[in-house]
Amino acid sequence: xxxxxxxxxxxxxxxxxxxxxxxxxxxxxxxxxxxxxxxxxxxxxxxxxxxxxxxxxxxxxxxxxxxxxxxxxxxxxxxxxxxxxxxxxxxxxxxxxxxxxxxxxxxxxxxxxxxxxx
Length: 118
Hints:
Layout: H1 2-23, H2 27-38, H3 46-62, H4 66-84, H5 91-116
């Protein structure tokens, strides 16, 4: 049962990153790059963000290097929360901040779970 729960957890967490990465492609690219620049993050980092979200999300979903990918995505979730969702006076931003922190928590559990399955 633990193995099944871990697989489902990986897929549920991964889908957030995969969908977000795909959303930044095409028409979403320029809007995301503009938002990043508005928040003080250089737009040239966007391809790396997309690669991390898509590549990391897919790797997590299939269980490739789960421990390291989960740790990387957890750090990414916390950093993006603090950079982009720090305006807690805005309820939407506060919800996104808490969502990112919750995802980081779930990802850190995967780090621990993957370690115990070795």
